[in-house]
Amino acid sequence: MSRNRLARLKPIDSLSDHHRNQLLAKVTNEVLPYRVELDAGKEKDWFVYLLDGEIRVQTADGDGEKFDATSRRAFQPIFADATRPAKAVFQTECRIARVDRRLFHQICEEKSEEDGYDVNAAEAAEMQADVLKKLFEDYQKGTIPVPSIPEAAMRVRQLIDDPDASIMELARYVEQDPAMAGKVVAASNSALSGGQTTIGSVKDALVRLGMKPAGDLITWLSMKGLFDFPSANLRKTAKEIWRYSVLVGASARVLADEYGAGIDGDKAFLAGLLHNIGAVALLAYFDEFEPSSREFMTGGSLHEICAMVSTMVAQSWDLDGDFVTTAESTAQWGAEGCDNAYAAVVNLARQQVHAIHDPGLSVPAVEELAGFELLKPALDDGIAPVLKDNDYIESTLAALA
């Protein structure tokens, strides 16, 4: 097994390169013929992974799944829960790898002591693997609950699309929600709209902002409500994800205006804001396991499935193809064949947000990003100058976050 393959396996991806190398020295590989069966009970000392071929896993309670080595499921252990009776039947000749489970636990415990953690890292990694397995199974079944598009967003889009609708109609709708009305007025008095004189009415705020920009603002504000959770821990993660999404959206708009000929800045903003919307659906799974926002945003263990669910949400909301493609493209930083301008500008915005606001995080160079050739931005030490100390981005963050 290669180091690159090992680094992508769950839960081993939670370890450092040094610790993974310790495991790699103990990995065993085996080629087994068609129809051979593996028993979970006999493999309890190992994480067993499928490297080549196709298998069917059957549990004692009748649940079953078939997958091959090219699927995302192959990056999970064949037997995710070693205590649950199950068997794996090889549908073809297969190559498997066994990783010493006890050595993994020992490394996690040593790492826990080195880092001063109070939790058992091995137990956390095992629980994460179980959660991810359930998530992926439910995704395949189509049973992950998809959030509904907010009523305010739907109503405002209807008014904007109606050629006979007026600013007054939009104002009357906004005034029904005092909190929303206050946000709209505040936005009209900020650098977001470039206003020089202070105004106090919703109607005047909408006139200053304009019908479509005001509608976009209300849409964005209504989306924020989706990230409100009863659990304090989940609410904290959701708030971080929302703030990140606002930064990506605002940065995408600035980059679209600067480098994206023919790209609508407002649409780029909304594509950036919604590119990670699947996190709303996934957070509902985590009453016990508490993911960090980074796992949803930068290629962590939840990131790829979050991209898939974001795509599903965009489709269920009947958003146009640019939004769907943008959500799909976030699964991998360097996805090949990215020829969608909105996906490209959001991908660049994501990279730039991390480079500016989280410089300790390792992200690909701009030249390695999917769709980079569609934009070719000018850079100063890896940062697009238009994003540095940008009043529009700061004002947007203040208005929406």
Descriptive account of the structure:
Residues about 115-125 have low confidence and may be disordered. This protein is about 50% helix and about 10% strand. It folds into three domains: about 5-140, Jelly Rolls (Sandwich); about 145-190 and about 200-220, no CATH class; about 230-400, Orthogonal Bundle (Hypothetical protein af1432), CATH 1.10.3210. It has about 400 residues and is α+β, with helices and mostly antiparallel strands. The strands form two sheets. The chain has a four-stranded antiparallel sheet, with no helix packed on it. It has a three-stranded antiparallel sheet with strand order 1-7-3. The two termini are about 45 Å apart.
Keywords:
single chain, 401 residues, alpha+beta, Jelly Rolls, 3 domains, three-stranded antiparallel β-sheet, 17 helices, 9% strand, elongated
Tell me how many strands there are. Answer: 7
CATH class of the largest domain: Mainly Alpha
Q: Which strand-content bin applies to the residues? A: 5-15%
**What is the assigned CATH homologous superfamily of the largest domain?**
Hypothetical protein af1432
Q: N-to-C SSE series?
A: HHEEEEEEEHHHHHHHHHHHHHHH
Distance between the termini: 45 Å
Number of domains: 3
| Biggest sheet strand line-up | 2-6-4-5
